[in-house]
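Hi, here's the filled form for the chain we discussed.

Project: internal
Contact: R.S.
Residues: 303
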Amino acid sequence: MEYHINEIVRQSDSIVVIGNFDGVHLGHQKLFAAAVETKGDMDVLALSFFPHPTWILSGAKKEIITPTRDKIEVMKSLGVDVFVEYPFTLELANMNAYDFFDKILIEDLKAKVVVVGEDYRFGKERKAGIAELAEMCEKKGVRLCVVKKLMLEGEKVSSTQIRRYLAEGAVEDASKLLGYTYKIVGKVIKGKQLGRTIGFKTANISTKEGVLYPKNGVYATKVKVYNKEFLAITNIGYNPTVGGKVKMIESNIFDFEKEIYDEEIEVSFLKFIRPEKKFVNLNDLKMQIITDKEKTLRDFTTF
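And the returned structure, exactly as it came back:
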């Protein structure tokens, strides 16, 4: 799949799907499914913006659910051919809707079909909506596909709701709205190596600035390494028992003893077990890990 981080000028016609696609959740998947249905011999192009518009307009950084690389992998599996993260600047924010449509969608991206959600708004101060977009498309002979907001068990599927669930540690609820198990991917780095002194080696992944993680605590997880999956327990946090200062993702992988430094692993979150806690000593921590492991094995042995 092609990926572009700057302005792109297409040479052939496109089906353009517009959105931020944070999480590439079930609602986004519905947009891409609508685009793929009309694909023909055109490329399906996902148009997003970076940084997130709220960073530029309000100065408030919005932590993302899905890093770009992971987002690309999900989009690729959904039939997206081209992903464009268009630079969002004050100049773009002040561009009126008609100029955005003519310059970016028609001139640069060669849009023949535009796919958006029913609440899509665009242009300076987001003044234009579906009615204005429909009028522009009609004048240029572009087909407009408006996809209704997706509801799941009575609630709207949205990145905002997924963020709330992750902040609460409700990874199962977040996964339902995502349409796949919430996961974190990263390279294993060396930690303090204290886990091995109490009989529980951990595979550690560092956290990244600007990425949203589930609330600190211990989770039942499955870890994919060397293309095989293993049950695990994973702690997100600072490991206060040993005076940790940096937020880490530490996984104790069951029945796995290999050294995997610098290997990439995929940690999928199944269930929140307990909050992060500072223990009096390492032996108390060891006993708690044994309890956490036994609970995970009871609940997920047949995952």
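Let me know if anything looks off before we file it.
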